[in-house]
Amino acid sequence: MENGQLLCPVFCVSEIPTTLLDLFLNRNDEQAGDCPGTAHRIMDTKDLSTISSGSSAPIQPFTSPFLGQSVPEVRDWFDANITQPCQSGFLLHCFVVLDAQSIEDETCLFVSTLDGPLESLRCDFDFAMMNAVAIFMGDAMEGLKGSYMRSGTTMTVENYKLASSGGLYIEDGEVKLDQSWRDFLKW
Questions:
Q1: Residue 129 parent element (H or E)
Q2: Are 167 and 152 within 8 A, CB to CB?
Q3: Tens digit of pLDDT for each residue in 84-110?
Q4: Which of 125, 127, 162, 164 has its CA nearest to residue 144?
Q5: Which whole number is the average pLDDT over 161-179?
Q6: What is the value of pTM for the model shown?
Q7: Coil, strand or helix at 102
Q8: Could you give the 3-state DSSP secondary structure of residue 63?
Q9: CA distance linking residue 14 with residue 83, whole number of Å
Q10: Alpha-carbon distance 28 to 123, whole Å?
Q11: Rounded (10°) angle between helices 157-164 and 143-151
Q12: Longest C-alpha distance within the chain, in Å?
């Protein structure tokens, strides 16, 4: 890959507007300082030999070759074409899915295959690359991420901060406690 980047594939299983794809890429670029050497690649082709770099905004209109596919179908393609042949330049154990819900609420489905079975986590766009790097570094989908998966809660910047701090936050210079987020790690 160009500049030695590792690419995290992004599969569009619904017609995703290019403005939303641009927003996804821009929000992840903001996090790139924490994740050097990685980039997302909007999978606009199944021909991996034509891919040499990550995607950047603005995205040109295209028809996704993964339209209408389920997450397990995408995982099967990912496993057969990226993980099993150890496709150079790609993160081998995770990918992102943009679906109909992505259009509604600007979230994505982060999928990990690190521990064998398919594990997924709904997160806002800001967390896609951070989760990919965590998986690349060998972090399992347990702990805090597991609490999100078990509860069905979407991982956002705001609620991640609350969960990470045990429900503590500062308001008007005073430390306060949100009991539901204090108990979150027990889920």
A1: helix 128-136
A2: no
A3: 898 999 988 889 999 999 999 999 998
A4: 164
A5: 76
A6: 0.82
A7: helix
A8: coil
A9: 23
A10: 12
A11: 120
A12: 56
